[in-house]
Amino acid sequence: MEIIKDLPEGLRRDIKRYLCLDLIKKVPLFHNLDDLILDNICDRVKPLVFSRDEKITREGDPVQRMVFIVRGRIISSQSLSKGMVATSIIRPGGFFGDELLSWCLRRPFMDRLPASSATFVCVEPIEAFGLDANHLRYITDHFRYKFANERLKRTARYYSSNWRTWAAVNIQLSWRRYRTRTKGPMISATQNGSSSDRRLLQYAALFMSIRPHDHLE
Asked: Residue limits of the Cyclic nucleotide-binding domain (predicted)?
């Protein structure tokens, strides 16, 4: 990127498109974007490389960029309470930092960057690319018609590690409630079992209180 930054704008854009377009098209969030938007993304993304066990973002830190995984896996860990942690794996095609997407599309706009809801650590060497907050805001402002599209918004929510973790807890809670309602006498009412259910209820209540919010709402 340093080598090509001083080249004529058109040539620089062509080189970055050649280097980045195929990688960008691997991200499900970008599958239905038109060429004009993809060109603008190519011109602004930064290739990123992280080493194994590297901590990319800590929970509570300001989210500086959205990161899209091309190769490798990342573990996301989110603190609950009393030392309990919810974890999930982000694989190629996934992304994190989606708090920025909601931040860009929220009205009225707030200058303060959102806080990361989880800590992200590399399970293995990672190849990725990132969109800095100011570049993502530029793209969403100029192509708002596309980012307001329901299909794109649902895709963003589906691949969000925050929403997946929240959904997993609530699906598990709903399943246990269903089993209790339909198979009540068959389920052992041991102390350990009831304690596990109480913990799950606590998790669900906590996740409901910190439920992810985005521009779908």
From this structure: 29-139
